[in-house]
Amino acid sequence: MRRVLIVGANGQLAFDLIKIFSNDYEIIKAVHDDFDVADKIATENFIKNYTPDIVINTAAYHKTEECELNPEKSFAVNAMGAFNVAKATKKVNAKVIFISTDYVFDGSKEFFTEGDIPNPLNVYGASKLAGENLTKIVNENYYIIRTSWLYGVHKSGKGNNFVTLMLEKAKNGENIKVINDQFGSPTYTYDLALKIKELIDKNISSGIYHITNSGSCSWYEFARKIFELSNLKPNLERIKSEDNPSKIKRPKYSVLVSENLKKQRIENLRPWQEALSDFMLEYNRK
Phi then psi for 98, rounded to 5 degrees? Predict the structure, then answer.
């Protein structure tokens, strides 16, 4: 049985990866207490000790506003951490999978394919793009998975995702204001995990792959659908980005479209509305 090491094993995507891979693979879990990806020696020793066949690197510093204030930490984890994991993985002749982001793009057009040139607007996006490039440099046996607007049933150390935050605010009776002029593709971590396993099972070519649920919406449209599916009717107001000043620049459009999946005859994920509906059923069972 092949061994999969999941780095960042306490995150919401990792939770679904562990669930989906566990039937067909031996799972090795690693959290920050096991090793810090920014520590080259510790990373190398851990991976050498367990000799996995596949390493999925979900570890990230992704609190975007904190990244802006702390670029050293952002690059230590998202760039050099990616380098350390990819290099250690190469030394045991294993495949590395690096989870990246829509924030590598500037939002200057309505959607982005794998062939578009990245141009990040903020430190988080720049650090993840550096992580992509360093991964490719040191381990030619790689998948770089760009995704966006993730949500899942597992509550990670980051706290709420957008869906659970909206549900919490509604249940607390809060007035909710949501931006209506930033557009992306909400992605259910369970669906993303299934597709990552499919890429590995089919042993498709190394490369960059955009994987999100199909379709797109604004944050406001996303919130409205969450409340529709949950039968909640909070006071929901649409606002513009300028009405909610942020410490960082965010792309107006961050919709990811995959040409590379199509070339590999791999289907895209289902529409985001269907995925959200299934998530709500799973969430309400908890």
Answer: -110, 125
Residue 44, both tokens: 């190398």
Q: How far is CA 73 from the centre of its chain?
A: 19
Closest CA to 89 of 37, 127, 125, 126: 37
Burial of 176 (C-beta count, 10 Å sphere; 0-12/13-18/19+):
middle
Instruction: Write out 167-227 in H/E/C secondary structure.
Output: HHHHHCCCCEEEECCCEECCEEHHHHHHHHHHHHHCCCCCEEEECCCECCEEHHHHHHHHH
Please give the helix or strand (H or E) that residue 238 lies within, else none: strand 236-239
pTM above 0.90, yes or no: yes
Element (H, E) at 105: none
**DSSP-derived 3-state class of residue 99:** strand
pLDDT surpassing 70 at residue 122: yes
User: Which residues are identified as catalytic?
Assistant: 124
According to DSSP, residue 271 is labeled: B
At residue 63, the pLDDT reads: 86
